[in-house]
Write a structure and sequence with these properties.
With 239 residues, this protein is mainly α. It has helices at 6-14, 28-35, 67-77, 90-119, 123-137, 141-145, 148-173, 191-207, 212-232; strands at residues 41-42, 48-49, 54-57, 62-65. The strands form 2 sheets. A two-stranded antiparallel sheet has the order 1-2. It comes from Candolleomyces eurysporus.
Length: 239
């Protein structure tokens, strides 16, 4: 099960040659420190948070974590490739990213994580991921999976979150200034498009594109998410 991040989609969309290094979930902080990659954020208690994705660009010697910073770097360092951040949209894009992940990734989390632990991870990584989930759920992963009421609520919450984002997109499409095209802002793909695709890629990667779970998600909002993922499938290749 290969994670499909904004970084991977951006690199493939831009056509930039790259190689992936797989890091076990439990070793992310250790490996980042070895590679001198900075933390992506600072937690509320003041401690550094090390999260993927991250890149090392040998052509510029840049070491970067955090998706937005990675995209900014790629746009600047490779100006001949499609520009993913339109000038002056950085703040709006950051706000959109946060909002989408609150309404799509967060409610999908309790559905995807159990499958991730049981089929996508092993050893210390599975133990750590399981611990995070069970701390949140206040019960064992097995108890959660056997609780039909909780599972049903998780699906309803996820569908509600996706529908909220769908309402945003529908409202934007009615703007008289909206350019015509397959992407959110018209004919040019932008980081906002990749943010949506990356959040859709998570259940696709965990459940599988032929799974009942993904078919269910993909069918929401008149099939918007299935169609949107279809635009990005070609950019999800792992190198």
């Amino acid at each position: 099960m290969a994670p499909i991040s904004t970084r991977r989609l951006a690199l493939n969309l831009k056509g930039i040659e790259h190689q992936t290094e797989w890091i076990p979930y439990c070793d992310i902080e250790k490996r980042f420190k070895e590679l001198d990659i900075p933390p992506s954020d600072i937690r509320s208690d003041g401690t550094p948070a090390y999260t993927i994705p991250a890149i090392y660009d040998s052509s510029t010697n840049a070491r970067i974590s955090d998706s937005l910073k990675i995209i900014e770097h790629l746009d600047e360092a490779y100006p001949h490739t499609p520009k993913l951040l339109a000038p002056g949209t950085e703040v709006l894009t950051a706000a959109f990213t946060w909002a989408v992940r609150q309404r799509m990734r967060r409610p999908t989390w309790p559905l995807v994580v159990p499958a991730t632990v049981t089929s996508g991870l092993d050893g210390p990584s599975a133990t750590k991921y399981r611990g995070n989930f069970e701390s949140w759920a206040k019960m064992s992963l097995e108890e959660f999976k056997q609780n039909a009421a909780l599972i049903d609520k998780a699906w309803k919450d996820a569908e509600e979150g996706y529908s909220t984002v769908n309402d945003w997109l529908k409202a934007a499409s009615k703007s008289p200034n909206q350019a015509v095209g397959p992407w959110l802002t018209g004919k040019d793909v932008r980081l906002a498009d990749i943010v949506l695709a990356a959040d859709l890629a998570w259940p696709v990667a965990v459940f599988g594109e032929d799974s009942e779970e993904w078919k269910k998600i993909g069918s929401w909002n008149d099939g918007r998410w299935r169609e949107y993922w279809g635009l990005f499938k070609q950019y999800a290749t792992v190198h």
